[in-house]
Design brief:
6 helices; mainly alpha
Length: 172
């Protein structure tokens, strides 16, 4: 009977995800969510550049890029690229439990993409030629993205640190 209880599904314990895996998952989800919002901003004319302008339109000259399929593929690719961004944040700032570092991280990402890497993206106008609506909406979008990634990773890190400290004091 005791042998049978060990094999019951309700008695099985799930191995928890490590903080790194949770951070990378947060990066993917953040990339998907905020690139979807970027696409919405473009369609409602808050921004003159769509996420697909960076990912697909600059390198692929096919008709399907301007369809819904191009948008979906772009959102998925940005989700994958966002895993790398989350890894960078995890490596550099995970111990800083502040919303403001995420805001700064988002502004820094916006600067890198729109200013430094702009020559790579042939379909994106230079920063000096963008309308103020585009600049304001994309900066806000990147601030929200950076805050989502940053605060989620920092919160997870500190939450797991607190749990492990509680388990250590219970054992003593």
């Amino acid at each position: 009977m005791a042998e049978q209880k060990k094999h019951l599904e309700q008695n099985q314990h799930e191995t928890p995800m490590t903080i790194l895996v949770r951070s990378l998952l947060t990066g993917f989800i953040g990339g998907v969510i905020w690139s979807t919002f970027g696409t919405v901003l473009y369609y409602f004319n808050f921004s003159e550049v769509a996420p697909k302008s960076f990912i697909l339109s600059s390198w692929i000259q096919a008709e399907w890029v301007d369809t819904w399929l191009g948008n979906v593929i772009t959102i998925f690719i940005i989700g994958l690229l966002s895993v790398g961004t989350a890894f960078i944040y995890y490596g550099l700032f995970k111990k800083i439990n502040s919303m403001w570092i995420g805001v700064v991280f988002g502004i820094l990402l916006w600067s890198v993409i729109f200013y430094i890497m702009n020559p790579i993206f042939s379909t994106v106008p230079p920063l000096t030629k963008l309308h103020t609506d585009t600049i304001a909406s994309t900066v806000c979008l990147f601030i929200l993205y950076g805050t989502f990634i940053g605060y989620s990773i920092s919160y997870d890190y500190h939450d797991l640190q607190g749990q492990s400290n509680n388990q250590k004091t219970e054992k003593v």
